[in-house]
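Hello forum,

I keep getting stuck at the same step: I have a sequence, I want structure tokens, and every attempt I make locally crashes halfway through. Rather than fight my setup again tonight, could one of you with a working pipeline run this one for me? It's a single chain of 239 residues.
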Amino acid sequence: MATSTITHATPAAFASHVSNRNNEMEIANQFYNQDIDVLLGGGESYFLPKSEGGHQYLMNYMKRFERDGYEIARNAEQLHSANSDRIVGLFANNAMAPEQDRHETDEPSLQEMTGAALSALDQNDEGFFLMVEGSQIDWAGHANDYDWAMTDTEAFEAAYIEAIEFAIEDEETLVVMASDHDTGGLALDGNDNPVWSTTNHTGVDVPVYSFGPGSEQFGGLMDNTDLPKRIANALDIEL
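Reply #2:
Ran it on my machine without issues. Output:
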């Protein structure tokens, strides 16, 4: 799940292997073949053929998803009414709207997508893994845009709270919140004015929060490459 295209770098890393992050057509192909239960975000154009305004040469993955029994959602109303345990919701041809502009669209919020995904995945008695990305916090840092950064951070916080409330009730769910890096170097100057130091990524340490069974594995300082290892350990799988 992401507010970028669902085939963007971070979500792609969880279900595909390609030599170039920009090969979103192939990432879409691998997503389809991975038999993922829930896909929510932007980027419908990467799942459609050129004849329908997409990027694929011939393949229409949206029709294939529907044929395979997935419930398809293209706006917030359709997502709210979805009751299947397998949902594909792609709400924009490319990236979804920034949170501050979402009121001008029919797209769901990140919190709404998180709630819908949890409801769908909770139908699986064997448990689930869900990745949720507030994709555009990074983009706002690159743009040095305070309003964009703050509103998308608030939207991500609301999604995080949605997950925590689910975990509190469920009592068997581990929630891990992390960032792959800082972007922009946002800080306060001596007069408490917000200032940026760069339009690129920084080497600033970023926090990791965790809640639920196994959360003790995520305390203290760690290298960012240790995070997937600890997640794999919590899932009892080998990378």
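The chain is about 35% helix and 10% strand. If your local run keeps crashing, start a new thread with the error log.
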